[in-house]
Design brief:
This protein has 503 residues and is an alpha+beta fold. It is built from 13 helices and 20 strands. The strands form three sheets. Strands 3, 4, 5, 6, 11, 12, 13, 14, 15 and 16 form a ten-stranded mixed beta sheet that branches. Strands 1, 2, 7, 8, 9, 10, 17 and 18 form an eight-stranded mixed beta sheet that branches. It has a two-stranded antiparallel ribbon with strand order 19-20. Helix 1 packs across helix 7, helix 8 packs across helix 9 and helix 11 crosses helix 13.
Length: 503
């Protein structure tokens, strides 16, 4: 590697998904100097293609993943407090099908689910007469009994962006569209070459440790970019979701048992839609872009048609998305039974600069994963401060009483000239950062060019200036989901605006 001037950091994080962004924020808050590089946009791969749930994983109890479920349930409460603007409670309804799982088994599982975690804010589970309850709304009449329990939904891409924003606010350097093309140990440090995908320019950074949080690319990064061998593998599993026009009234979600013993989640999405997912299909070969297949779409439609009164066909699908889950390869042949737990491996002894690799993981436990990652690196950084993220809000999350609805009412009183729907959308994206976003805004004209779906030029400028957005896709599908609501022409207008602003 040729000699170049080099910036020196404690930590180079490779990967701008939820684990990389979470580790960068945690490390920066402990006093470490951090640089994060991501070859695309933040959350542009797996982390924006999840089922968008903060949950313990009820079905993991059948696989005896008690430690993972307990940790995830505890994190559910932490994230409700730290990010109430993008994490919201939801009641999940499971219609009972006696042939698939006996009622006693479901009751036992839900009792464990209620008690494994430190549940404070969420109501517990109970049985329900679906014939005489609003929770039966949308179901076929033959489903008479069921169970109700609590979990949460999350805007997954915004969770990543806000972690990156929090890291940057603490001094971390966030480099999107920047690929780490090579790295080597040199004189007791890592020397890494970074390639700017937009300009083609290259630069070097020097780091005292590397975190490989590149998700599906974790083994490729470790072996090809860093030149290290590993005995660990990831099993790549494709998970697809479909979005259709709203299927039922009510704010509840459904967890539907399928005849292959998998479960499908169905819940209200973006006001006018219903989200349905997910599939588990092993993806052979290396990581690559994926899309929902005809077979997967038909599978999800059939699963829903078994339970809901309103039929769903592939022709009803308004949008699909697909993600590649990099699960730790535990040897299971069934993609649905591969562990969702994570493994953190450090290469480097007492006299070697380390690289920590992240195998597996799920979005719910990203914060604990970050704590555990830094614990493994602690001997190299004795000056590192104590864990701190469990009691500290994400950017915009310092909502009084963690009550986002009350905060929305406060916004409406402060900005009476603005539409209430607009203020609600902004609050759920930005939380208390709305106070900065809307500074000096007197009326709707101060928000600049309107694009539809309560999206205005001022907010796009915010995404560009503070959240690393560089394309219409960044704005329409990750910083927001406005792409679901805008016409093709409106989307082109957004693209033209972003291009003009970013050059």
């Amino acid at each position: 590697m040729a000699e170049h001037s080099s910036d020196i950091y404690d930590l180079l994080v490779i990967g701008g998904g939820i684990n990389g962004a979470g580790i960068a924020r945690d490390a920066a808050g402990r006093g470490l100097s951090v640089v994060l590089c991501e070859m695309g946009d933040l959350a542009s791969a797996t982390s924006s293609a999840s089922s968008k749930m903060i949950h313990g994983g009820l079905r993991y109890l059948e696989q005896y993943e008690f430690r993972l479920v307990a940790e995830a349930l505890a994190e559910r409460e932490v994230l409700l407090n730290c990010a109430p603007h993008i994490v919201r409670p939801m009641r999940f309804v499971m219609p009972h099908v006696r042939e698939l799982r006996p009622a006693w088994m479901i009751r036992a599982g839900l009792w464990l689910y209620d008690h494994l975690g430190r549940r404070r804010r969420l109501p517990g589970s109970h049985g329900v007469d679906l014939q005489h309850s609003a929770y039966g709304g949308g179901l076929k009449p033959e489903f008479r009994k069921g169970f109700v329990y609590s979990d949460c939904l999350v805007d997954d891409a915004r969770l990543v962006v806000l972690n990156a924003r929090g890291a940057a606010d603490l001094g971390a350097r966030i480099l999107t569209r920047t690929r780490c093309v090579a790295a080597q140990r040199l004189e007791g440090q890592w020397r890494a070459r970074l390639h700017d995908e937009a300009t083609g320019s290259e630069s070097d950074v020097t780091a005292r440790a590397i975190v490989d949080a590149s998700g599906p690319w974790v083994k490729k990064t470790l072996t090809e970019t860093l030149g290290l061998a590993t005995r660990f593998n990831v099993k790549l599993v494709q998970g697809s979701h479909i979005v259709v026009p709203r299927l039922y009234d009510g704010d509840h979600a459904f967890i539907l048992q399928n005849d292959d013993r998998r479960v499908i989640f169905v819940y209200p999405y973006e006001d006018d839609y219903t989200l349905i997912g997910t599939t588990d299909v092993e993806l052979p070969g290396g990581p690559r872009p994926c899309s929902a297949t005809v077979t997967e779409i038909e599978y999800l439609c059939r699963a829903v048609d078994r339970y809901l009164g309103k039929p769903v066909t592939p022709a009803d699908v308004a949008w699909t998305y697909c993600g590649v889950r990099p699960l730790f390869d535990d040897g299971s042949d069934n993609p649905s039974k591969v562990t969702r737990d994570y493994v953190l491996h450090v290469d480097g002894g007492a006299h070697d600069v380390p690289v920590l690799s992240v195998f597996g993981g799920k979005i719910t436990t990203y914060r604990k994963l970050a704590e555990h990652a830094l614990q493994k690196l602690a001997s190299w950084f004795p000056q590192m401060k104590k864990p701190w993220t469990g009691q500290t809000a994400l950017p915009g999350g310092d909502v009084p009483g963690a009550d986002i609805e009350r905060y929305i009412e406060t916004l409406k009183s402060r900005h009476a000239a603005l539409p209430g729907e607009l203020l609600a959308r902004l609050a759920h994206r930005h939380g208390t950062l709305c106070d900065k976003l809307l500074v000096d805004v007197r009326d709707i004209d101060d928000l600049g060019q309107p694009f539809g779906a309560a999206l205005y030029a001022r907010e796009i400028d915010w995404f560009i200036e503070r959240e690393w957005a560089r394309s219409a896709e960044d704005v329409l599908w990750r910083r927001t989901k406005a792409g679901l609501h805008l016409t093709a022409q409106q989307q082109r207008d957004v693209a033209d605006y972003v291009t003009a602003r970013c050059g």
